[in-house]
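RETRY 2/3 - previous attempt timed out on the joint model. Re-submitting the same 417-residue input unchanged.
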Amino acid sequence: MQSFFIHGPQEVYGSIEVGTSKNATLPILAGSILAKDRVVIENIPAFSDIDMMVRILKGFGLKIFKRKNNLYIHTYHKNSTIAEEKYTKQIRSSIFLLGPMLAKWKEATIAYPGGCNIGARPIDIHLEGLRALGATIDEKDGYLICKGDHMHHGELTLKFPSVGATENLMMASVFLEGTTILHNVAKEPEIVDLANFINQMGGKVIGAGTDTIYITGVKELKGITYRPIPDRIVTGTLLLACATLGGKITLHHCIPEHNESLIAKLIESGCHVKTENDIIEIESTKKRKNVASVVTGVYPAFPTDLQSIYMVFASTGKGKCQITETIFENRFGIAKYLNAMGAKISTNGNTAFVQGVKKLKGTQVVATDLRAGAGLVIAGLKAEGDTTVQHIHHIDRGYEKIEDIFRMISVGITRQS
Ligand code: EPZ
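RETRY 2/3 succeeded.
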């Protein structure tokens, strides 16, 4: 098990280009199944979740290879519709393979998905929706055995605007005769990116980014070359790193409006933030003070994926901050490790009460999930003394060698086995 050794405190300076979004690329990778010929995904990010998804697709017989930063996916060699459990169990995103597999191949067998331990992660909305579109799904020995021969268009309302279920059902509908209407869908930028990808392949998806999406069935989709959007959570992580550690950084290749809710909180806290086209510049100031409350929610509210990292920022701000997590039921894993570093955080149900402290002290901590792990790296860089972050494989799922990312902004972190 690898760990990070971090000596703090350190400030950040410099500029960096933000990479491609994990949560946009994963559904687009799954959606490449829908194309009748080659799909090229440009600027593919090097996250372990992406590698896992590629292994699953190769397990179907698809020919996939990487050249420079592009991934080439040839879909006509398919010789299996079984997703191997050893891979599907490691990532949440394996579940939204069901939609494109049923749409294109009319059958799919996948084991229950895995993913960060931030809650129960049920898949009822996915299964209810697919069944409402005529799919048959048998659950046997931890596997979902699905058939899509008699699928039909429909009008559905999701009981919660689930990101993955929205993506799954959108992809499941692309070849269904007539128009499928999905209400109460997720509005994240990654949903819009997937719809753009499908439409550029010749699909007919309207309303992505709003509460209702209309998918009109087409006969086939052609392979294209596509570059997914930049990663708004990596962008937010870097903005929070600068706000927490001090210094000044410039982020390139961003979409600032995707981080509006965070930027508003950082400005309210006393940070100087400037945005222009695909650039965000942030400078932290000593006059930093905590905002009273942060509440996570579905986009465009404050993103749950930045909640743990925001907690690190609030831990060393002046005054109190109340953080309410409304999306996942177990996403305060970072709190006990921050308290071990000298933070003052108490939690009650889905609310964390943070009392800012002047200093954190280095110690040994454990990454409980992807974003908490990134938060602990920042905490280690803020703390006085030495910090070791263990279980850093979680972090590699959503950050391309985070030590290299931080080196670009003048910060040293050592990966040790
Ligand atoms: C996606 O997960 C992201 N992952 C998550 O990012 C992100 O935190 C989440 O959306 C919310 O924005 C990917 O895109 C690969 P949901 P997903 O379905 O689709 C409940 C990261 O750090 N729910 O919107 O799994 C669920 O339990 C990861 O990059 C059901 O009840 O999220 C949760 O409470 C972590 N039944 C809420 O909805 C279902 O069938 C939101 O889940 C599905 C979800």
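The two ends are 6 Å apart (CA to CA). Closing ticket.
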